[in-house]
Amino acid sequence: MLEQLVKALPIYTEGSIVKGRIIEKRSKEILVDIGYKSEGVIALNEFEDGDTLAVGDEVEVFLEDLENEDGVIVLSKEKAAQKQNWDKIVKTFNEGGVIDGKVKAVVKGGLMLTVGVEAFLPSSQIDVAPPKNLREYEGKTLTCKIVKINEERKNVVLSRREIVEAERAEKRSKFLSSVEKGSLVKGTVKNITEFGAFIDLDGIDGLLHITDMSWSRLNHPSELLRIGQEIEVVVIDVDREKERVSLGLKQKSDNPWDKIADKYPVQTKVKGKVTNLAPYGAFVELEPGIEGLVHVSELSWTKRVARPADVLALGQEIEAIILDVNKDEQKISLSVRALDANPWDEVSLKYPVNMTVKGKVRSFTAYGAFIELDEGIDGFIHVNDLCWTRKINHPSELLKKGEEIEARVIEIDKTNQRISLGLKQLADDPWKAIEERYKVGETVSGKVTKVASFGAFVQLADDIDGLVHISQISNERVAKVKDVLKIGQDVTARIIRIDKAERRIGLSLKAMDYNEEQFEKERERLDTIRPGEDLGSLADAFDTAAQEDYRPGDKK
Protein backbone atom coordinates (compact mmCIF):
# COMPACT_ATOMS: atom_id res chain seq x y z
CA MET A 1 0.00 0.00 0.00
CA LEU A 2 2.82 2.41 0.93
CA GLU A 3 4.66 1.66 -2.31
CA GLN A 4 1.52 2.43 -4.31
CA LEU A 5 1.13 5.75 -2.47
CA VAL A 6 4.74 6.72 -3.22
CA LYS A 7 4.26 5.87 -6.87
CA ALA A 8 1.14 8.04 -6.98
CA LEU A 9 2.98 11.12 -5.66
CA PRO A 10 4.23 13.53 -8.40
CA ILE A 11 7.98 13.81 -9.01
CA TYR A 12 9.32 17.31 -8.28
CA THR A 13 12.50 18.59 -9.93
CA GLU A 14 14.25 21.75 -8.92
CA GLY A 15 14.42 24.27 -11.81
CA SER A 16 11.12 23.11 -13.31
CA ILE A 17 7.74 24.84 -13.67
CA VAL A 18 4.94 23.27 -11.64
CA LYS A 19 1.27 24.02 -11.04
CA GLY A 20 -0.03 24.98 -7.62
CA ARG A 21 -3.15 26.30 -5.90
CA ILE A 22 -3.46 29.39 -3.71
CA ILE A 23 -4.49 28.29 -0.24
CA GLU A 24 -4.02 31.59 1.56
CA LYS A 25 -3.70 35.26 0.48
CA ARG A 26 -1.99 37.70 2.79
CA SER A 27 -1.27 41.46 2.48
CA LYS A 28 2.13 41.04 0.77
CA GLU A 29 2.33 37.34 -0.07
CA ILE A 30 0.41 34.27 -0.95
CA LEU A 31 0.69 30.64 0.18
CA VAL A 32 0.80 28.11 -2.69
CA ASP A 33 0.29 24.35 -2.40
CA ILE A 34 1.96 22.34 -5.17
CA GLY A 35 1.09 18.94 -3.59
CA TYR A 36 4.44 18.61 -1.89
CA LYS A 37 5.00 17.95 1.77
CA SER A 38 5.09 21.69 2.48
CA GLU A 39 3.64 24.89 0.97
CA GLY A 40 5.64 27.68 -0.68
CA VAL A 41 5.43 31.41 -0.04
CA ILE A 42 5.56 33.88 -3.02
CA ALA A 43 5.69 37.69 -2.76
CA LEU A 44 2.51 39.26 -4.14
CA ASN A 45 4.49 41.79 -6.25
CA GLU A 46 5.82 38.94 -8.41
CA PHE A 47 2.38 38.76 -10.00
CA GLU A 48 1.33 41.37 -12.59
CA ASP A 49 -2.33 40.90 -11.53
CA GLY A 50 -1.69 40.36 -7.81
CA ASP A 51 -4.84 42.31 -6.74
CA THR A 52 -7.13 39.94 -8.64
CA LEU A 53 -5.73 36.73 -7.21
CA ALA A 54 -8.00 34.72 -4.91
CA VAL A 55 -7.78 31.59 -2.77
CA GLY A 56 -8.31 28.54 -4.95
CA ASP A 57 -6.76 30.06 -8.09
CA GLU A 58 -4.34 27.85 -9.97
CA VAL A 59 -0.94 29.31 -10.79
CA GLU A 60 2.25 28.16 -12.54
CA VAL A 61 5.39 28.71 -10.49
CA PHE A 62 9.11 28.01 -10.71
CA LEU A 63 10.46 25.42 -8.25
CA GLU A 64 13.76 26.89 -7.05
CA ASP A 65 14.44 24.68 -4.05
CA LEU A 66 12.55 21.73 -2.55
CA GLU A 67 13.77 22.58 0.90
CA ASN A 68 15.77 25.58 2.08
CA GLU A 69 17.63 25.98 5.37
CA ASP A 70 14.32 26.42 7.16
CA GLY A 71 12.92 23.28 5.57
CA VAL A 72 10.52 25.33 3.41
CA ILE A 73 9.97 24.86 -0.33
CA VAL A 74 11.09 27.90 -2.41
CA LEU A 75 8.83 29.00 -5.30
CA SER A 76 8.92 32.01 -7.75
CA LYS A 77 6.36 33.40 -10.15
CA GLU A 78 8.84 35.80 -11.86
CA LYS A 79 11.34 33.07 -12.61
CA ALA A 80 8.54 30.91 -13.96
CA ALA A 81 7.63 33.69 -16.39
CA GLN A 82 11.31 34.22 -17.33
CA LYS A 83 11.80 30.52 -18.03
CA GLN A 84 8.62 30.38 -20.09
CA ASN A 85 9.69 33.45 -22.04
CA TRP A 86 13.20 32.13 -22.60
CA ASP A 87 11.83 28.80 -23.82
CA LYS A 88 9.65 30.79 -26.22
CA ILE A 89 12.71 32.76 -27.38
CA VAL A 90 14.71 29.59 -28.00
CA LYS A 91 11.83 27.96 -29.87
CA THR A 92 11.32 31.05 -32.04
CA PHE A 93 15.06 31.22 -32.77
CA ASN A 94 15.23 27.53 -33.75
CA GLU A 95 12.19 27.85 -35.98
CA GLY A 96 13.44 31.10 -37.61
CA GLY A 97 10.32 32.98 -36.62
CA VAL A 98 9.77 36.60 -35.64
CA ILE A 99 8.87 38.21 -32.35
CA ASP A 100 7.39 41.52 -31.23
CA GLY A 101 9.20 43.64 -28.66
CA LYS A 102 8.69 47.04 -27.10
CA VAL A 103 11.58 49.50 -27.12
CA LYS A 104 12.65 49.91 -23.52
CA ALA A 105 15.66 52.21 -23.87
CA VAL A 106 18.22 53.74 -26.23
CA VAL A 107 21.68 52.40 -25.46
CA LYS A 108 25.11 52.70 -27.00
CA GLY A 109 25.01 51.17 -30.47
CA GLY A 110 21.29 50.45 -30.62
CA LEU A 111 18.08 49.77 -28.73
CA MET A 112 17.05 47.55 -25.81
CA LEU A 113 13.72 45.76 -26.35
CA THR A 114 11.51 43.71 -24.03
CA VAL A 115 10.50 40.46 -25.71
CA GLY A 116 9.70 38.59 -22.48
CA VAL A 117 13.38 39.01 -21.71
CA GLU A 118 15.66 41.91 -22.53
CA ALA A 119 17.06 41.84 -26.07
CA PHE A 120 19.53 44.06 -27.99
CA LEU A 121 18.75 45.51 -31.43
CA PRO A 122 21.91 47.02 -33.05
CA SER A 123 21.37 50.34 -34.90
CA SER A 124 22.73 48.76 -38.10
CA GLN A 125 19.91 46.20 -37.94
CA ILE A 126 17.01 48.57 -37.25
CA ASP A 127 16.34 49.52 -40.88
CA VAL A 128 17.81 49.27 -44.39
CA ALA A 129 19.85 52.38 -43.60
CA PRO A 130 20.91 53.04 -39.98
CA PRO A 131 18.58 55.71 -38.54
CA LYS A 132 20.08 59.06 -37.55
CA ASN A 133 17.89 59.52 -34.46
CA LEU A 134 17.27 56.44 -32.30
CA ARG A 135 15.05 58.41 -29.94
CA GLU A 136 12.22 58.29 -32.44
CA TYR A 137 11.83 54.55 -31.67
CA GLU A 138 11.35 54.92 -27.91
CA GLY A 139 8.13 53.25 -26.72
CA LYS A 140 7.41 51.70 -30.12
CA THR A 141 6.70 48.01 -30.66
CA LEU A 142 8.93 46.48 -33.36
CA THR A 143 8.72 43.14 -35.10
CA CYS A 144 12.17 41.56 -35.22
CA LYS A 145 13.98 38.37 -36.03
CA ILE A 146 16.16 36.65 -33.42
CA VAL A 147 19.64 36.32 -34.92
CA LYS A 148 21.69 35.26 -31.90
CA ILE A 149 21.13 33.87 -28.38
CA ASN A 150 23.48 32.99 -25.54
CA GLU A 151 22.00 30.31 -23.25
CA GLU A 152 24.55 30.81 -20.52
CA ARG A 153 24.29 34.62 -20.32
CA LYS A 154 20.69 34.71 -21.47
CA ASN A 155 21.63 37.31 -24.13
CA VAL A 156 19.42 37.90 -27.17
CA VAL A 157 20.36 39.85 -30.34
CA LEU A 158 17.65 40.97 -32.77
CA SER A 159 17.46 42.19 -36.35
CA ARG A 160 14.66 44.13 -37.96
CA ARG A 161 16.49 44.92 -41.19
CA GLU A 162 15.77 41.59 -42.86
CA ILE A 163 12.04 42.00 -42.19
CA VAL A 164 12.05 45.58 -43.53
CA GLU A 165 14.00 44.50 -46.63
CA ALA A 166 11.56 41.68 -47.27
CA GLU A 167 8.58 44.01 -46.86
CA ARG A 168 10.17 46.59 -49.18
CA ALA A 169 10.98 43.91 -51.75
CA GLU A 170 7.36 42.81 -51.74
CA LYS A 171 6.11 46.40 -52.02
CA ARG A 172 8.71 47.14 -54.70
CA SER A 173 7.63 44.17 -56.76
CA LYS A 174 3.99 45.16 -56.41
CA PHE A 175 4.75 48.78 -57.34
CA LEU A 176 6.84 47.90 -60.42
CA SER A 177 4.23 45.48 -61.68
CA SER A 178 1.44 48.04 -61.54
CA VAL A 179 2.98 51.48 -62.16
CA GLU A 180 2.97 53.00 -65.65
CA LYS A 181 4.48 56.09 -67.28
CA GLY A 182 2.37 59.11 -66.50
CA SER A 183 1.03 57.66 -63.22
CA LEU A 184 0.66 60.02 -60.28
CA VAL A 185 2.28 58.59 -57.14
CA LYS A 186 2.85 59.91 -53.63
CA GLY A 187 6.11 59.66 -51.74
CA THR A 188 8.37 61.20 -49.14
CA VAL A 189 11.59 63.10 -49.81
CA LYS A 190 14.27 60.73 -48.51
CA ASN A 191 17.50 62.41 -49.57
CA ILE A 192 18.59 65.59 -51.39
CA THR A 193 21.71 65.91 -53.56
CA GLU A 194 23.05 68.59 -55.91
CA PHE A 195 21.55 66.85 -58.93
CA GLY A 196 18.15 65.95 -57.51
CA ALA A 197 16.17 64.24 -54.77
CA PHE A 198 15.38 60.60 -53.96
CA ILE A 199 11.72 59.98 -53.22
CA ASP A 200 10.64 57.02 -51.04
CA LEU A 201 7.65 55.46 -52.78
CA ASP A 202 7.03 52.99 -49.95
CA GLY A 203 9.23 50.15 -51.12
CA ILE A 204 11.30 51.72 -53.88
CA ASP A 205 13.25 54.94 -54.31
CA GLY A 206 12.57 57.12 -57.33
CA LEU A 207 14.87 59.85 -58.63
CA LEU A 208 13.46 63.33 -59.11
CA HIS A 209 16.14 65.14 -61.12
CA ILE A 210 16.63 68.87 -60.56
CA THR A 211 15.72 69.57 -64.19
CA ASP A 212 12.34 67.90 -63.64
CA MET A 213 11.46 69.78 -60.47
CA SER A 214 10.36 73.10 -61.87
CA TRP A 215 9.95 74.94 -65.15
CA SER A 216 11.89 77.72 -63.40
CA ARG A 217 15.66 77.49 -63.00
CA LEU A 218 16.79 76.04 -59.66
CA ASN A 219 20.31 76.39 -58.28
CA HIS A 220 19.78 73.55 -55.80
CA PRO A 221 16.89 71.11 -55.04
CA SER A 222 16.79 72.39 -51.46
CA GLU A 223 15.26 75.62 -52.78
CA LEU A 224 12.07 73.63 -53.44
CA LEU A 225 12.17 70.47 -51.30
CA ARG A 226 13.06 69.39 -47.77
CA ILE A 227 13.77 65.94 -46.31
CA GLY A 228 10.62 64.30 -44.93
CA GLN A 229 8.31 66.33 -47.17
CA GLU A 230 5.42 64.41 -48.70
CA ILE A 231 4.87 65.17 -52.39
CA GLU A 232 2.93 63.89 -55.37
CA VAL A 233 4.97 63.29 -58.51
CA VAL A 234 4.58 61.99 -62.06
CA VAL A 235 6.26 58.77 -63.19
CA ILE A 236 8.36 59.76 -66.22
CA ASP A 237 10.07 56.42 -66.86
CA VAL A 238 10.19 52.90 -65.37
CA ASP A 239 13.03 50.43 -65.82
CA ARG A 240 11.60 47.23 -64.33
CA GLU A 241 14.73 45.21 -65.03
CA LYS A 242 17.03 47.60 -63.16
CA GLU A 243 14.26 48.62 -60.74
CA ARG A 244 14.68 52.32 -61.48
CA VAL A 245 11.97 54.94 -61.50
CA SER A 246 12.36 58.47 -62.90
CA LEU A 247 10.01 61.07 -61.49
CA GLY A 248 8.88 64.56 -62.41
CA LEU A 249 7.26 67.38 -60.50
CA LYS A 250 7.07 70.11 -63.12
CA GLN A 251 5.22 67.73 -65.46
CA LYS A 252 2.13 68.13 -63.27
CA SER A 253 1.64 71.57 -64.83
CA ASP A 254 1.69 72.80 -68.43
CA ASN A 255 5.00 73.83 -69.95
CA PRO A 256 4.96 77.64 -70.02
CA TRP A 257 7.35 77.52 -73.02
CA ASP A 258 4.71 75.95 -75.30
CA LYS A 259 3.18 79.33 -76.15
CA ILE A 260 6.20 81.46 -75.38
CA ALA A 261 6.61 82.99 -78.85
CA ASP A 262 3.02 84.27 -78.86
CA LYS A 263 3.31 85.68 -75.36
CA TYR A 264 6.68 87.36 -75.81
CA PRO A 265 7.09 88.66 -79.39
CA VAL A 266 10.48 90.00 -80.46
CA GLN A 267 10.97 93.74 -79.76
CA THR A 268 8.37 93.64 -76.95
CA LYS A 269 9.20 95.59 -73.78
CA VAL A 270 8.97 93.40 -70.67
CA LYS A 271 9.51 93.68 -66.93
CA GLY A 272 11.22 91.12 -64.73
CA LYS A 273 13.28 90.43 -61.62
CA VAL A 274 17.01 89.68 -61.65
CA THR A 275 17.40 86.13 -60.29
CA ASN A 276 21.06 85.39 -61.02
CA LEU A 277 24.20 87.30 -61.96
CA ALA A 278 26.87 85.48 -63.96
CA PRO A 279 30.12 86.85 -65.45
CA TYR A 280 28.56 86.73 -68.92
CA GLY A 281 25.14 88.20 -68.14
CA ALA A 282 22.09 88.50 -65.90
CA PHE A 283 19.10 86.12 -65.71
CA VAL A 284 15.75 87.87 -65.44
CA GLU A 285 12.53 86.08 -64.39
CA LEU A 286 9.63 87.27 -66.51
CA GLU A 287 7.13 84.89 -64.86
CA PRO A 288 7.37 81.63 -62.88
CA GLY A 289 9.23 79.16 -65.08
CA ILE A 290 10.29 81.74 -67.67
CA GLU A 291 13.68 83.45 -67.57
CA GLY A 292 15.53 85.56 -70.07
CA LEU A 293 19.24 86.37 -70.32
CA VAL A 294 20.63 89.87 -70.66
CA HIS A 295 24.13 89.36 -72.04
CA VAL A 296 26.75 91.69 -70.57
CA SER A 297 27.15 93.29 -74.01
CA GLU A 298 23.43 94.20 -73.99
CA LEU A 299 23.55 96.22 -70.78
CA SER A 300 24.76 99.53 -72.22
CA TRP A 301 25.56 101.16 -75.55
CA THR A 302 28.37 103.26 -74.16
CA LYS A 303 29.42 102.12 -70.68
CA ARG A 304 32.14 99.52 -70.52
CA VAL A 305 30.44 96.97 -68.21
CA ALA A 306 32.95 94.36 -67.05
CA ARG A 307 30.48 92.39 -64.91
CA PRO A 308 26.66 92.54 -64.70
CA ALA A 309 27.01 92.81 -60.91
CA ASP A 310 28.57 96.25 -61.43
CA VAL A 311 25.24 97.69 -62.66
CA LEU A 312 22.56 95.21 -61.48
CA ALA A 313 21.59 93.60 -58.17
CA LEU A 314 19.79 90.36 -57.27
CA GLY A 315 16.06 90.92 -56.86
CA GLN A 316 16.16 94.19 -58.82
CA GLU A 317 13.13 94.88 -61.03
CA ILE A 318 14.20 95.95 -64.52
CA GLU A 319 12.76 96.55 -68.00
CA ALA A 320 14.20 95.04 -71.16
CA ILE A 321 13.50 94.41 -74.83
CA ILE A 322 12.95 90.90 -76.27
CA LEU A 323 15.70 90.24 -78.83
CA ASP A 324 15.10 86.57 -79.57
CA VAL A 325 12.94 83.63 -78.41
CA ASN A 326 14.13 80.03 -78.84
CA LYS A 327 11.38 77.64 -77.76
CA ASP A 328 13.36 74.46 -78.45
CA GLU A 329 16.32 75.53 -76.30
CA GLN A 330 14.04 77.42 -73.90
CA LYS A 331 16.05 80.60 -74.17
CA ILE A 332 15.00 84.24 -74.32
CA SER A 333 17.56 86.90 -75.19
CA LEU A 334 16.96 90.30 -73.62
CA SER A 335 18.51 93.73 -74.01
CA VAL A 336 18.54 96.63 -71.59
CA ARG A 337 20.43 98.97 -73.88
CA ALA A 338 17.81 98.51 -76.61
CA LEU A 339 15.45 100.59 -74.45
CA ASP A 340 17.45 103.62 -75.65
CA ALA A 341 18.53 104.75 -79.10
CA ASN A 342 21.91 103.48 -80.28
CA PRO A 343 24.32 106.42 -80.11
CA TRP A 344 26.40 104.70 -82.78
CA ASP A 345 23.62 105.45 -85.26
CA GLU A 346 24.85 109.05 -85.23
CA VAL A 347 28.58 108.37 -84.96
CA SER A 348 29.17 108.49 -88.71
CA LEU A 349 27.45 111.88 -88.82
CA LYS A 350 29.30 113.26 -85.81
CA TYR A 351 32.71 111.83 -86.77
CA PRO A 352 32.89 111.59 -90.59
CA VAL A 353 35.90 110.00 -92.28
CA ASN A 354 38.87 112.41 -92.71
CA MET A 355 37.61 114.63 -89.91
CA THR A 356 40.21 115.82 -87.40
CA VAL A 357 39.00 115.02 -83.89
CA LYS A 358 40.24 115.64 -80.35
CA GLY A 359 40.28 113.07 -77.57
CA LYS A 360 41.99 111.81 -74.45
CA VAL A 361 44.30 108.78 -74.42
CA ARG A 362 42.36 106.28 -72.26
CA SER A 363 44.34 103.03 -72.42
CA PHE A 364 47.01 101.08 -74.29
CA THR A 365 47.19 97.64 -75.82
CA ALA A 366 50.24 95.99 -77.35
CA TYR A 367 49.03 97.01 -80.79
CA GLY A 368 47.51 100.44 -80.27
CA ALA A 369 45.78 103.04 -78.09
CA PHE A 370 42.13 103.80 -77.25
CA ILE A 371 41.17 107.46 -77.51
CA GLU A 372 38.03 108.63 -75.70
CA LEU A 373 36.14 110.98 -78.03
CA ASP A 374 32.90 111.18 -76.05
CA GLU A 375 31.34 109.38 -73.10
CA GLY A 376 31.30 105.74 -74.08
CA ILE A 377 32.67 106.46 -77.57
CA ASP A 378 36.26 105.44 -78.21
CA GLY A 379 38.44 105.60 -81.26
CA PHE A 380 41.43 103.33 -81.80
CA ILE A 381 44.85 104.21 -83.18
CA HIS A 382 46.86 101.24 -84.40
CA VAL A 383 50.63 101.38 -83.87
CA ASN A 384 51.06 101.40 -87.65
CA ASP A 385 49.07 104.64 -87.81
CA LEU A 386 51.15 106.52 -85.24
CA CYS A 387 54.12 107.58 -87.35
CA TRP A 388 55.10 107.63 -91.03
CA THR A 389 58.79 107.29 -90.45
CA ARG A 390 59.48 105.41 -87.24
CA LYS A 391 58.92 101.77 -86.35
CA ILE A 392 56.69 102.06 -83.23
CA ASN A 393 56.70 98.91 -81.11
CA HIS A 394 54.35 100.22 -78.41
CA PRO A 395 51.99 103.24 -78.39
CA SER A 396 53.55 104.52 -75.15
CA GLU A 397 56.64 105.47 -77.17
CA LEU A 398 54.67 108.45 -78.53
CA LEU A 399 51.60 108.79 -76.29
CA LYS A 400 50.81 109.19 -72.59
CA LYS A 401 47.67 108.12 -70.75
CA GLY A 402 45.38 111.07 -70.10
CA GLU A 403 47.04 113.15 -72.81
CA GLU A 404 44.81 115.26 -75.09
CA ILE A 405 45.62 114.65 -78.75
CA GLU A 406 44.31 115.26 -82.24
CA ALA A 407 43.82 112.47 -84.77
CA ARG A 408 42.26 111.84 -88.16
CA VAL A 409 39.15 109.60 -88.61
CA ILE A 410 40.17 106.81 -90.97
CA GLU A 411 37.16 104.44 -90.87
CA ILE A 412 33.76 103.96 -89.13
CA ASP A 413 32.58 100.37 -88.44
CA LYS A 414 29.05 100.82 -87.08
CA THR A 415 28.33 97.07 -86.89
CA ASN A 416 31.29 96.36 -84.62
CA GLN A 417 31.13 99.83 -83.04
CA ARG A 418 34.67 100.82 -83.97
CA ILE A 419 36.23 104.11 -85.01
CA SER A 420 39.69 103.80 -86.56
CA LEU A 421 41.90 106.85 -86.05
CA GLY A 422 45.30 107.85 -87.35
CA LEU A 423 47.90 110.18 -85.89
CA LYS A 424 50.32 110.11 -88.80
CA GLN A 425 47.51 111.00 -91.21
CA LEU A 426 47.53 114.54 -89.80
CA ALA A 427 50.72 115.19 -91.81
CA ASP A 428 51.87 114.32 -95.32
CA ASP A 429 53.83 111.13 -95.81
CA PRO A 430 57.48 112.20 -96.17
CA TRP A 431 58.27 109.01 -98.06
CA LYS A 432 56.23 110.20 -101.01
CA ALA A 433 58.99 112.72 -101.82
CA ILE A 434 61.90 110.71 -100.40
CA GLU A 435 63.75 110.46 -103.71
CA GLU A 436 63.62 114.24 -104.04
CA ARG A 437 65.13 114.76 -100.59
CA TYR A 438 67.73 112.00 -100.49
CA LYS A 439 70.00 110.52 -103.18
CA VAL A 440 72.11 107.37 -103.17
CA GLY A 441 75.73 108.31 -102.50
CA GLU A 442 74.79 111.50 -100.70
CA THR A 443 76.33 112.25 -97.30
CA VAL A 444 73.89 112.74 -94.38
CA SER A 445 74.19 113.40 -90.66
CA GLY A 446 72.06 112.13 -87.80
CA LYS A 447 71.91 110.76 -84.27
CA VAL A 448 72.01 107.08 -83.27
CA THR A 449 68.59 106.18 -81.79
CA LYS A 450 68.74 102.39 -81.52
CA VAL A 451 71.51 99.82 -81.32
CA ALA A 452 70.89 96.17 -82.20
CA SER A 453 73.07 93.13 -82.76
CA PHE A 454 72.97 93.63 -86.54
CA GLY A 455 73.44 97.40 -86.73
CA ALA A 456 72.36 100.85 -85.58
CA PHE A 457 69.46 103.14 -86.53
CA VAL A 458 70.24 106.75 -87.24
CA GLN A 459 67.54 109.44 -87.12
CA LEU A 460 67.78 111.81 -90.07
CA ALA A 461 65.73 114.92 -90.81
CA ASP A 462 61.92 114.68 -90.52
CA ASP A 463 62.30 111.70 -88.11
CA ILE A 464 63.26 109.40 -90.97
CA ASP A 465 65.45 106.51 -89.83
CA GLY A 466 68.30 105.00 -91.72
CA LEU A 467 70.10 101.75 -90.88
CA VAL A 468 73.85 101.30 -90.63
CA HIS A 469 74.25 97.56 -91.01
CA ILE A 470 77.07 95.98 -88.97
CA SER A 471 78.85 95.22 -92.23
CA GLN A 472 78.79 98.95 -93.09
CA ILE A 473 80.34 100.33 -89.90
CA SER A 474 84.03 99.76 -90.62
CA ASN A 475 86.41 98.08 -93.00
CA GLU A 476 87.71 96.26 -89.94
CA ARG A 477 85.66 93.37 -88.53
CA VAL A 478 83.13 94.59 -85.94
CA ALA A 479 82.14 91.96 -83.35
CA LYS A 480 79.59 94.06 -81.47
CA VAL A 481 77.83 97.16 -82.73
CA LYS A 482 77.60 98.65 -79.23
CA ASP A 483 81.43 98.65 -78.97
CA VAL A 484 81.57 101.16 -81.83
CA LEU A 485 78.28 103.08 -81.81
CA LYS A 486 76.31 104.45 -78.84
CA ILE A 487 72.75 105.77 -78.53
CA GLY A 488 72.79 109.56 -78.87
CA GLN A 489 76.06 109.59 -80.85
CA ASP A 490 76.22 111.95 -83.83
CA VAL A 491 77.36 110.23 -87.02
CA THR A 492 77.89 111.13 -90.67
CA ALA A 493 77.28 108.45 -93.30
CA ARG A 494 76.63 107.90 -96.99
CA ILE A 495 73.28 106.69 -98.32
CA ILE A 496 73.96 103.33 -99.89
CA ARG A 497 70.37 102.31 -100.64
CA ILE A 498 66.87 103.85 -100.82
CA ASP A 499 63.86 101.49 -100.92
CA LYS A 500 60.77 103.67 -101.30
CA ALA A 501 58.37 100.70 -101.46
CA GLU A 502 59.71 99.26 -98.19
CA ARG A 503 60.25 102.75 -96.70
CA ARG A 504 63.87 102.01 -95.81
CA ILE A 505 67.18 103.85 -96.15
CA GLY A 506 70.53 102.03 -95.87
CA LEU A 507 73.56 103.94 -94.60
CA SER A 508 77.29 103.22 -94.66
CA LEU A 509 80.02 104.65 -92.44
CA LYS A 510 82.92 102.82 -94.03
CA ALA A 511 81.98 104.10 -97.51
CA MET A 512 82.57 107.72 -96.50
CA ASP A 513 85.99 107.76 -98.20
CA TYR A 514 85.15 105.38 -101.07
CA ASN A 515 85.47 106.54 -104.62
CA GLU A 516 82.60 105.91 -107.00
CA GLU A 517 83.98 102.57 -108.17
CA GLN A 518 84.47 101.29 -104.60
CA PHE A 519 81.04 102.60 -103.61
CA GLU A 520 79.28 100.73 -106.44
CA LYS A 521 81.09 97.49 -105.59
CA GLU A 522 79.96 97.87 -101.96
CA ARG A 523 76.38 98.38 -103.07
CA GLU A 524 76.56 95.25 -105.24
CA ARG A 525 78.07 93.26 -102.37
CA LEU A 526 75.29 94.38 -100.03
CA ASP A 527 72.69 93.23 -102.55
CA THR A 528 74.22 89.73 -102.68
CA ILE A 529 73.88 89.08 -98.94
CA ARG A 530 71.50 86.13 -98.60
CA PRO A 531 69.11 85.70 -95.68
CA GLY A 532 70.93 83.97 -92.87
CA GLU A 533 74.30 85.49 -93.71
CA ASP A 534 75.32 88.26 -91.36
CA LEU A 535 71.65 88.79 -90.38
CA GLY A 536 70.46 88.68 -93.96
CA SER A 537 69.14 91.42 -96.20
CA LEU A 538 68.57 95.01 -95.23
CA ALA A 539 64.81 94.35 -95.14
CA ASP A 540 65.41 91.57 -92.61
CA ALA A 541 67.40 93.98 -90.51
CA PHE A 542 64.49 96.36 -90.13
CA ASP A 543 62.14 93.51 -89.21
CA THR A 544 64.53 91.98 -86.70
CA ALA A 545 65.11 95.35 -85.07
CA ALA A 546 61.50 95.36 -83.92
CA GLN A 547 61.96 91.91 -82.39
CA GLU A 548 65.12 92.88 -80.51
CA ASP A 549 63.75 96.16 -79.15
CA TYR A 550 62.54 96.21 -75.58
CA ARG A 551 59.05 97.56 -75.12
CA PRO A 552 58.19 99.83 -72.19
CA GLY A 553 57.98 97.76 -69.03
CA ASP A 554 60.26 94.99 -70.36
CA LYS A 555 63.27 94.08 -68.25
CA LYS A 556 66.67 93.25 -69.62
Secondary-structure topology with pairs:
Layout: H1 2-8, E1 17-25, E2 29-33, E3 40-43, E4 58-65, E5 73-76, H2 77-95, E6 98-107, E7 110-114, E8 118-122, E9 141-150, E10 155-159, H3 161-178, E11 184-192, E12 196-200, E13 205-209, E14 230-239, E15 244-248, H4 260-263, E16 269-278, E17 281-287, E18 290-295, E19 317-326, E20 331-335, H5 347-350, E21 356-365, E22 368-374, E23 377-382, E24 404-413, E25 418-422, H6 434-437, E26 443-451, E27 455-459, E28 465-469, E29 490-499, E30 504-508, H7 516-527, H8 538-548
Summarize the structure.
With 556 residues, the protein is mainly beta. The protein is 14% helix and 38% strand.
Walk me through the structure.
The chain is mainly β and 556 residues long. The chain has 6 domains: 2-81, OB fold (Dihydrolipoamide Acetyltransferase, E2P) (Beta Barrel), CATH 2.40.50; 96-164, Beta Barrel (OB fold (Dihydrolipoamide Acetyltransferase, E2P)), CATH 2.40.50; 179-252, OB fold (Dihydrolipoamide Acetyltransferase, E2P), CATH 2.40.50.140; 260-339, Nucleic acid-binding proteins (OB fold (Dihydrolipoamide Acetyltransferase, E2P)); 343-426, OB fold (Dihydrolipoamide Acetyltransferase, E2P) (Beta Barrel); 431-548, Nucleic acid-binding proteins (OB fold (Dihydrolipoamide Acetyltransferase, E2P)). It has 8 helices and 30 strands. A 5-stranded mixed beta barrel has the order 1-2-3-5-4. A hairpin with a 3-residue loop joins strand 11 (184-192) and strand 12. The longest helix is centred in the N-terminal third of the chain and has 19 residues, at 77-95. The radius of gyration is 51 Å and the shape is elongated.
